[in-house]
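> tool_call: predict_assembly(chains=two)
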Amino acid sequence: MTTRQNAVTGLVVIAALAAGSALISRVPGPQEVALAPFLHAGTVGAPIHLRTGEIVVDGVQASTQVRQGAITASTSGHWLVVTLRYTAADTPASLAGMTVQSRDGRTYSLARPFQSACGVGQPGVTIACSMPFELAPDALEGAHLRVPAALLGGGEGDDIADVDLGIDAATAARLAVATEPVRIEAVTVVGAQRVGGTP
Amino acid sequence: MQVRRFFGLFGGVLDRSTVGVLVLAVLFAGTGAAGGWSGAEAQENALVSAEPGAAVTADPLTVTIKKAYVADAIPSLAPARPGSRFVLVTVTVEDTSPRPVDARTSAASFQVALPGLRQFGRPVSPEAARPDVVRALDATPLGALQPGVVQNLALVWEQDAAQEVPQQVSIVVVGHTWRVSALDGSRQWFDPTPAATVELPLAPLPAV
């Protein structure tokens, strides 16, 4: 093989490696595919079935102050309080790891002192609870609630309810000026029903 | 001569270009095994010195260190404890990342260079001492820093009262990186990296 042939072979190999690398970087890897969640889209008032139970978001409120028992928490942003019902399917389960996602993809978590406001649901028993999220002022409009079927893994490779909270520009403007403190109600049992988990 | 003799053993299968490729491969492998270019990056990550009241960036946080006070007890935050005093630093913090910063990481984002620091009744080093982080708005413990929500916070460290009260304190702001854990695959804030230091006078806490 001549020197020129060697050089051409080397260039072809390098070009093939570069092309392969560029292609691979644009294709999701096996781990990424395995960890992709199963999103169940929904809206306020519509039941959403998850592997571990069923949720229904009843509505949202907002304020600069929330109260639960003797605790009053303020914010320089907004408290967005999401009220929902939850019915566990076949085993006791808790709604943990819930987040609110803003339209631009920022994630907001429940945090102390209110993070365990929904407790554990028993199979077939519908409970209602209110979950306060502390949001930046510009995160209200277009916000979605995301509820993983289980805390472990945060919904990776698992069911996640993705609920459009129905906050358009007008609703966001109305919520943004609300200052009346919102009371976080304790978990209440509101009914019983048979809910089958998704296989 | 010995090198040439060594390669002479493989003269039938190794030409000069192949040897060149092998040398390059060994060079890259050796560089990677020795930590890659992290040493050069570390040189670039020198601690930034900032003035009190100036915003400093320690990803994922933007922090303004405002004032520092010392007291034997802080009403509603730190009751008097025999043999201890408290150092309170007021800060304004914003999480500029797209995800929350949990309470543990928030507390680990601040260090104070003081001798005789204590935590849970035991002596701790300045690097290991975690302040109590309290929201100034409602005096509740910080649960998490949420993206884009500006928080005024009080950071409280406990110090052995036998130590002298310094005229100044140095606060180090520590950045973190959001990445996947190599151990369990979870995503968390890791890799604490001191990013900025702020020197400010330590004044007695004004009586309320």
